[in-house]
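Fold it.
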Amino acid sequence: MRTLYRILARAGWGIDDRHSGPGGLPLQVAALPFELDSRGAPRFLLITSRNSGRWIIPKGWPVKGLTLAESAAREAYEEAGVRGIVGETEIGRLDSATKRGRQGTVARWPILIFPLPVGTILTRWPEQAQRRRQWMTRTEAIEAVSDANLAHILGAFETRDDPAPGEPER
């Protein structure tokens, strides 16, 4: 595995063994920041990518010492300026991220998505000068994203109120 990381590092991705998930394989994590409107329907906070300006969700590499979900929440803070209590259970997976290195080689790895109910929206955050953020309804978000897998995840997203202790599930 160390050889793979050396190859990726030399190819220009700035990747090393700090960017691995369970089993040591490269992967990224993403947060799906959301809130519920007055009818209980989700609204999603999307951000623009730095280079192309496409609508995406916050994503990045796992951080050593944090769980995968905590790493995703950190990306939401850095890229979208939001905080919340991230769900520890993955709600979706994008097939792969594709990156081209300086020498034209291609690498792919999965992106695990974790739900992030937004508790705080910050007015200042690390990447605010590099990105735009916008709340969107489910329909708006599905139409805005260019990744078909992400559109499917947005369309299938469901929230479920957990019952109080001793209360039967609905």
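The chain has a mean pLDDT of 83.
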